[in-house]
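Hi U.,

Before I forget, here's the chain from the pilot set. I'm dumping it here mostly so it's searchable later in email.
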Amino acid sequence: MPRYTVAVAFAMLAGAACPGGQSRQSPNGAPGAPAASARPDPAFAGTTARLHRVPPGSGAPAAMLRSVTAATARGYDRVVFEFASDSAPGYHVEYAPGPVRRCGSGDVVSVAGTHRLVVRFEPARAHDDQGNPIPQQREVALELPAVKEMKLVCDFESQVEWVIGVAGAKPFRVSELTGPARLLLDVKQGT
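Structure:
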């Protein structure tokens, strides 16, 4: 990805992650989008264990995933999943212990990087009421320090799942913002 595109993506990401949004964070992370810098974030506390947030009560409508963006920050790469509503669906984030497969075909999905983070949302959808894909870009090669590639692998029966190819099994943290709902996934860079 050209440097200009990454810079523009980071500027949009920083704006999307900060203005006026209310923040809720996982026990392992802190919200916000620090400025890019060569210095690592000394406060980065993350985990390599699975993180799970229970979906809203039964009957909750499927949250529509509006966009997925990624950029580098100070000591970590950030992936932002933005939804069309003010509340995020339930989620499950973990390193895949084996091959990741597409939900419809069962085909193995390959991504750049040595490890795979799987992010699943429910109830959620990545298409509009007419069945058109949203977001339209469903495979993104990035080559950031930690995040190498992202692919949508499932959008079926109120489940949306992305696989993220990463440079190593590094600690990650999850934060939530509202107005609109966003899930921030930070993956630590380096050793």
